[in-house]
Amino acid sequence: MTMNDAKQQTTYKDAGVDIEKAERSLERLKERIARTYTPEVLSGVGLFGGFYDLSGRSFQEPVLVSSTDGVGTKLKVAILANRHDTVGQDLVNHCTNDVAVCGATPLFFLDYFASGHLQPEIYEAVITGITLACKAANIPLIGGETAEMPDLYQPGEYDMCGTIVGIVEKSKIIDGRAIRPGDALIGVSGNGLHTNGYSLARRVLFAEYGVNDHIPALNAALADELLKIHPNYHSVISKALENFPLRGISHVTGGGIVKNTNRLLPGGLSLEIDWESWPVPPIFRLIQETGNVPEEDMRQTFNLGIGIIFIIEAHHRQALLDFGRQFQYQFYPIGRVRE
Question: Residue 10 has what pLDDT?
């Protein structure tokens, strides 16, 4: 017997990583993941990479558009409320919007889920949410990673991010370079905080309310409001692009309306926003009044009820507003581009 033989054995499981537990959860999810596949997917979960066949795409100058994002501390709300079936949908929809505003059609999605100790019921709820959103958007989930990292996360906590790849014809890229002074800004309504500003919202609201408290100003429980699923605007964007010569589209995420839309503007241009031109959802007023949050902080932290913004020549403004009546979202004239 060697000295090593005399010592007590220490396994990977003893160190806090249970590979078999993760594999069992993934096995239970494989059927749900497979439901997201489109004919272009050549391989299922399990290989070192996902295979996607582009040969059927008829592009003259195809350009791939990619984006990676997470849902921030909205996860803290999900954990506090013990509701994990919505944040995966948030992740897919947020990432989809990021490539859609570039004019791209999403091709496929990949996810990353990490925790200190994998809790199968939570993991499976999150990934099921991802598959539901992928299926609804016709985007295959072709790969991902599940990481169990003891001591890195507090008990019960987890994090996740998503990566999406889309495709666009080079001549149809929407990057803002065509924007000119006088162009109109058309805001499309959101449904709440989406996936941004939760650190401020949690600090303010949870100092006064419990996560399951019914809030009269919201006519809902606080968890129901804060866990509303981030809208997927891809169909609205694609239909608008089919009918109008849009010069820019911004996805209003962290940084608010101005900072996100400024990313599109050529040098020498700025925005003129009419902040009274659309109804601000009650959740934002609740945050502001409960925490005495300055207006400037509200504007640069939250979307304030506007999920995406179309930028178009002014003479198309009314036609685009009329076009918007067919959707569940409201279209508002919220300002213009100026020198």
Answer: 75
Q: Is the pLDDT score of 320 beyond 50? A: yes
Three-state secondary structure string covering the chain: CCHHHHCCCCCCCCCCCCHHHHHHHHHHHHHHHHCCCCCCECCCECECCCCECCCCCCCCCEEEEEEEEECCCHHHHHHHHCCCCCHHHHHHHHHHHHHHCCCCEEEEEEEEEEECCCCHHHHHHHHHHHHHHHHHHCCCEEEEEEEECCCCCCCCCEEEEEEEEEEEEHHHCCCCCCCCCCCEEEEEECCCCCCCCHHHHHHHHCCCCCCCCEECCCCEEHHHHHCCCCCCCHHHHHHHHHHCCCCEEEECCCCHHHHHHHCCCCCCCEEEECCCCCCCCHHHHHHHHHHCCCHHHHHHHCCCCEEEEEEECHHHHHHHHHHHHHCCCCEEEEEEEEC
| 19 has pLDDT over 90 | no
Distances (CA, A) of 143 to 31, 146, 258: 14, 10, 35
- When the candidates are 3.30.930.10, 3.90.650.10, 3.20.20.80, 3.30.420.40, the CATH number that belongs to 184-338 is 3.90.650.10
**Would you tell me the crossing angle of helices 120-137 and 87-100 to the nearest 10 degrees?**
40
CA 224/CA 330 separation, integer angstroms: 21
Mean of pLDDT values over 18-33:
84
**pLDDT of residue 174 exceeding 80:** yes
Predicted pLDDT of residue 6: 67
Per-residue pLDDT tens over the stretch 61-70: 999 999 999 9
Q: Is the whole-model pTM more than 0.85?
A: yes
pLDDT tens readout for residues 275-311 = 999 999 999 999 999 999 999 999 999 999 999 999 9
CATH for 14-172?
A: 3.30.1330.10
- Cα of 280 vs its chain's centroid, Å: 21
